[in-house]
## 1
Amino acid sequence: MFEKINSLLAEISSFSAKGNEELELFRLKFLSKKGLIPELFEEFRNIPGADKKEIGQKLNILKQAAQEKYNILKTGIHTADYSFSAEDLTRPAFPWMLGSRHPISIIRNEIIDIFTRIGFTVSEGPEIEDDNHVFTKLNFAPEHPARDMQDTFYISKISPEDSNPGDILLRTHTSSVQVRVMENQKPPIRTISPGRVFRNEAISARAHCIFHQVEGLYIDENVSFADLRQTLFYYAREMFGKDTKIRLRPSYFPFTEPSAEMDISCSICGGKGCNVCKFTGWLEVLGCGMVHPAVLEASNIDSHKYTGFAFGMGIERPAMLKYQVNDLRLYFENDIRFLEQFRTAF
Ligand code: PHE
């Protein structure tokens, strides 16, 4: 019996199955009720007492070995079953869709990067604002046309005819964030405020009722127009390339005096003249100026001690230039065929 067990042990340990059928034959031969091992246990009853202990132990080892072998082969054969399609190793991997940043976010981050490099902080504020922060404290006269229903989306207008500091509206520019910064911080202030703004305009390839801005504010002692110009020149070269030229044209904003609009040499044709710059060689990119003393005083900043400059620009414009996408609406439709083209950018 001892020898028989030993030879079965050897057979079991060298056994391997190529498939389920062979494994089943193994089970029938050794483990099933009429198999060799139960048969041996049957014989074991008649073994004389002196040998019982040793043979009993050996028999248990045999039974365990057969059971273990069976279990191992069973799981091994199962995972190697190529007829089960989920485990077809030649199948292409599941196509995980990789997301990408929205082009407007890419350009916004680039602008933020450029200004934070020279010490500007980033400030944010509410999109739903009051008249006070969007207009009154920025020196808009009560009858200023920008307050008109044509431009501003009002959420609740307290008096239908007159402007009222309590009116609630969607901000038309992020200058409102700068008012909040001036209310809450003491100079020196050096901050930019990126964000979404809203104006009641008809949607077309060149205009939208929602767009994005980055506005900047710098208030300290002795801030001059030369500082403004140099800061914007630095921005233009970083954003549009080191050969970019700028020019400032006189303009008007209620909250700055003097005010200017800045053009850059056309980044498409390099200033020679093309469709994009309408053959002028220049592109208008932002508004700017020295903060009006009335604006400083409205937020309790001493306008005799401090001066400052401010500027504001749309994000869609540089995005259109950079990616040469000339229909603004594409930035708002979230068509995946458009968005996935920006996958390599950050
Ligand atoms: N707030 C202005 C706009 O929305 C831009 C601007 C900001 C102009 C700061 C001058 C100074 O058009």
Note: Residues 2-80 form one domain.
## 2
Amino acid sequence: MDKEKIVVVDFGGQYNQLIARRIRQCHVYSEVWPYTVALEKLADPSVKGIIFTGGPNSVYDEKSPHIDPKIFSLGKPILGICYGAQLIAYELGGEVTHAETSEYGKTIITRIGDSKILGRFSSPSEVFMSHTDRVSKLPEGFKATAKTEHCPIAAFEAPDKLIYATQFHPEVRHTLEGQKALEDFTYNICGCKPTWKSESFITEQVEEIRKQVGDKKVLLGLSGGVDSAVTAALISKAIGKNLYCVFVDHGLLRKNEAKEVEDVFGPNGKFDLNFIPVDASKLFFSKLQGVSDPEQKRKIIGATFLEVFEEETNKLDDVEFLAQGTIYPDRIESGLGISAKIKSHHNVGGLPKNMKFKGLVEPLKNLFKDEVREVGKLLGLPDSIVYRQPFPGPGLGVRIIGEVTPEKVRIVQEADYIYREEIKKAGLDKNISQYFAALSNMRSVGVMGDSRTYDYAVVLRAVQTDDFMTAKPYLIPNDVMINIVDRIVNEVKGVNRVLYDFTSKPPSTIELE
Ligand code: XMP
């Protein structure tokens, strides 16, 4: 029998992978399957429970997704969430109506009677709602277990049928006690044991990768970032020297970064793989000479990266698979029938178009960032990589306003190094989502000793964000800031002024270009 799991049946909700992740947090394996999955697959003894996700449709829409009602006779515990709850009511003879008042966001529920799934909830309790339709009449044999001001049936269940439903989203953090409902469903109702761990993920993926690629060679572009590093460590564990990692140094990395990557993955590192470093900095600098438009710079860096990557990989014989460090948030959350989208953001220029591969290896594609970090730690990667801040593919190229020159790159590297060193020393590094030094293209007058200077102004940025779509400036304490500024102007030749960028996103972006 396959390993025991909870299957999340995807009806197009935004949070479907989040549900699976919350179940994995209970140390029980969970996967998302499309709603079109064959019933026999769900009938497999390894499937201990089924969760129906939310979705954008109304059960009455002509094109709304439905599922074979025989699913309710499989004898498996089922939990319906939002659209999933309405679908259960509709399929089993209840009624769903279009409510006059939509509920969106934080909402208060009050418990009604006993419940096997809300048994540990307080009453009242704060939950996250996002619906217009609601269940207005329960099917026979069901009882309501919670209500809100506008929704008399906010949760319902029929324990003898093993069916449970919540109109709210237990998987979302705004549902303060949501994890309790998922735990009770997983452990008490489905009878799962909390035995699945990140170690199990590694063992399973190692097997899976071996099965997929056999004795063939796999190519991976290493960027030094968390995702590609964890992918490399994992694949190397599976196939050792059949993994070829090409690391293109475009000369726009942070100070010492290329060396750090080499120390971990190179011949003196602890991983068994082929490490192919390529120092292409001269080529990048020559192509960037005289170019100051941000979009043009990005395009040149992307195209040159691809050119170098292709040239290097063309030297390798019989590579049949391409590996990518795609993680779940990189994929389009298109809802129904999610299909893996090739990550283009991180890969600077997208995929090598002239190379034909037999297949893609993306072992992290269902994981969230913190799960990836956990796997990375277990695989023995150093903290400097596991907790590395996001770094744009075009590197310092988008942190230098205007033309990029080796001299400007040196200035940013030195200033950024000091900034990072001092933030770490002050114990702030884990509190700030992203912080870095950039170079304004501005020079201004200063005085050094008895002489006039006309030097560059460095820009310091520090932001706090959950999703990097919006961000707020992080307030660095004055004493720490004064120390950083003093060190930068004293130690970095060519800088006589330091500015602190205090703008939110929007209207700014996090990077300067
Ligand atoms: P912006 O500047 O758009 O950045 O507010 C949002 C987040 O994305 C990162 N970023 C990039 N990452 N390739 C990447 O892999 C890129 O071209 C790129 N541009 C921005 C940025 O560092 C921030 O975390």
Note: The pocket of xanthosine-5'-monophosphate is lined by residues 345-346, 390, 392-394, 434, 468, 505, 509-511 (CB under 6 Å).
